[in-house]
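Give me structure tokens for this 262-residue protein.
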Amino acid sequence: MSIPKVLTIAGSDSGGGAGVQADLKTFSAYRVFGMSVITAVTAQNSLGVQSVEYLPPALVASQLSSVLEDLGADAAKCGMLGTEAVVRAVADGLRAHGVERLVVDPVMAATSGDALLEPGAARALTAHLVPLALVVTPNLPEAETLAEMPVSSRADMEEAARRIHKLGPRNVLVKGGHLKGDAVDLLYNGREFTAFQASRVESDNTHGTGCTFSAAIAAGLAQGRPLAEAVRDAKAYVTRAIREGFALGRGAGALRHFLTEW
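Here you go.
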């Protein structure tokens, strides 16, 4: 029996709500085999990020080689990478091993607003990693950085997607969760847009939403689903995970990852 294998390349969240921990929980909910490459260790809880230690690029590269040379991956996702050197190491490793189904979540800040990407790393992300992506999944602040323009409307989302697509990814998914009204995400393949809409869930239990969404897309891709179907299913999963989320600690609450259906 063949089990789909999915790799997350991201930082560790000691609070368990985001990062590698959220990704592995999502993979388990999807019934795929999760593997991980740790890029950074954070001291983090529901209130925010208290400290960060980035792992040496050589160690990140070694983890990546260990997994891909022996186990391989049907899909992979990148989350928090932190430094320019780590971005380059990850891009080199993914390129060398020919990972095709790659989801790049350009994580730049935590839900709390704490920075998770050093300034020089954003340029490296754009130049070296984004062009390898099957799909890149920025939220609105990340889309503003990548597209170098303000994004405050659906028309802005479309223009940002066009600009980001020119950076080299095969597809761009601009997430509209920061806008008012229904939560609408736009997928652009270089020719046309596909909109994914869901009723907004008013909740404070949203820590790790972006990590979970990109992990769910990667899991769907590993199962052999077309990208649009993987995105649609991932959005349904995240929406229900938020709806059934729960308070945890004194700050942002957690998603309920272990859903039996969605």
